[in-house]
Design a protein that fits this description.
By secondary structure, this protein is of the alpha/beta class. Helices cover 43% and strands 15% of the residues. It has 2 domains: 175 residues, Rossmann fold (3-Layer(aba) Sandwich), CATH 3.40.50.2000; 176 residues, Glycogen Phosphorylase B (Rossmann fold, 3-Layer(aba) Sandwich), CATH 3.40.50. Helix 7 packs across helix 13.
């Protein structure tokens, strides 16, 4: 009997980088495609080195990319020239790799690979993680083969883009996906109350300093039941530890938590920024939250992300301009002493979730690829 050679595995180039918000959904898609027999190549810029150590790519192709501040015409010209060099590099890499599809996750690091693919007539998809379309995706949307989105709304996008967008959700890591099956148990009347505070980096001074102060002012009966896990800026670490110790609050504080799934699983309430990954992970985990959108986020994308969860009843939104220590203390006291409301918020958050987003996006990739 003559054995036939195995069919060559299809190649997907995933263009992502810059921040974990772009890279983590890309990694979730990569893992879903690998399980279906695909080969994965990551196209990114040189900033991703600290984040891509666990990315399951056969090869990482580094392409030049850059961005410029608004109102900086000289910087814009320099960025454009850098991106053009990256496009030339990307075209060469794509010619060598001959992928069936190129999938971009927004941000300027995705531009060189996607522009290179578009100019070579290759199949392309962009995925928008936020409720507001980012600048890179707005630029590319008219020219790509398909558009995928995390949320049913897509502000700042053209009517044509919105009409053909496929809502797949925001892919989350498998360990977060597994939380979708874990029931939420609100705190008991006298038991411990577990509070998870995320967002230890971007624009995090407010969270690092205001939240310990707000928690320290809670009534004794509630404060002594608290178990706080908080990401905080390194320079704010010692002060946060001192505030919690003086208030007799048991707290674990660190600049970064690796076991986010385990911490989400045991949290009664989550407080954090409203980046796309945070909002999606909180929803999949089915955890009530207080979301504090980053004030300086471009196009208020974090505010729009948070609004999706708040409109469903799964989150409260605290805007930076109006947020004070007494207001946060009062909000925490109201929520943490109302188990029924927490449970209702948890259920509402889970109702927004799309835990199978990685598989949905993988389906779209396979349907779109040559």
């Amino acid at each position: 009997m003559v054995s036939l050679p195995a069919a060559p595995r299809k190649v997907a180039v995933i263009a992502a980088g810059g921040t974990g918000g772009h890279l983590f959904p890309a990694q979730a898609l990569a893992e879903a495609l690998i399980a279906r027999g695909w080969r994965i190549i990551l196209a990114t810029d040189d900033r991703v080195q600290g984040l891509a150590h666990a990315f399951p790519a056969e090869e990482i192709v580094t392409l030049e990319a850059a961005t410029a501040r608004r109102g900086d015409p000289i910087g814009a010209v320099r960025a454009a020239l850098t991106i053009l060099r990256g496009v030339a590099q990307g075209r060469g890499a794509l010619h060598r790799l001959n992928p069936s599809i190129v999938v971009g996750f927004g941000g300027y690091p995705s531009l060189p690979a996607l522009i290179g693919a578009i100019t070579q007539g290759r199949r392309t998809i962009i995925h928008e993680q936020n409720a507001v379309s980012g600048q890179a995706n707005r630029l590319l949307a008219p020219y790509v083969t398909a558009v995928a989105t995390a949320f049913p709304i897509l502000k700042k996008a053209s009517s044509e883009t919105r009409a053909r967008a496929v809502v797949v959700g925001n892919p989350v890591r498998p360990e977060i996906r597994n939380l979708a099956e874990l029931a939420y148990e609100p705190p008991g009347v006298d038991g411990e109350v577990r509070l998870l505070i995320t967002g230890g980096s971007q624009g995090a001074r407010l969270l690092s300093e205001l939240l310990p102060a707000a928690i320290a002012k809670l009534p004794d009966a509630l404060r002594l039941r608290l178990r706080v896990e908080q990401q905080t800026r390194p320079e704010s670490l010692d002060n946060a530890k001192r505030v919690y110790a003086d208030a007799m609050v048991q707290a674990e504080i660190a600049p970064f938590f690796r076991d986010m799934a385990g911490r989400l699983a045991r949290a009664h309430l989550v407080i954090g920024r409203a980046g796309a990954s945070t909002v999606s992970e909180v929803a999949v985990a089915g955890r009530p939250s207080i979301l504090i959108p980053l004030k300086v986020a471009l196009d208020d994308d974090q505010g729009e992300n948070a609004q999706v969860l708040a409109d469903a009843g799964g989150a409260e939104i605290a805007r930076e301009d109006a947020l004070t220590q007494p207001q946060m203390t009062r909000a925490l006291e109201i929520l943490l002493t109302n188990p029924r409301r927490l449970a209702k918020m948890a259920s509402a958050a889970r109702g927004v979730a799309r835990p199978d987003a990685a598989e949905r996006l993988a389906d779209l990739v396979e349907a779109t690829a040559r």
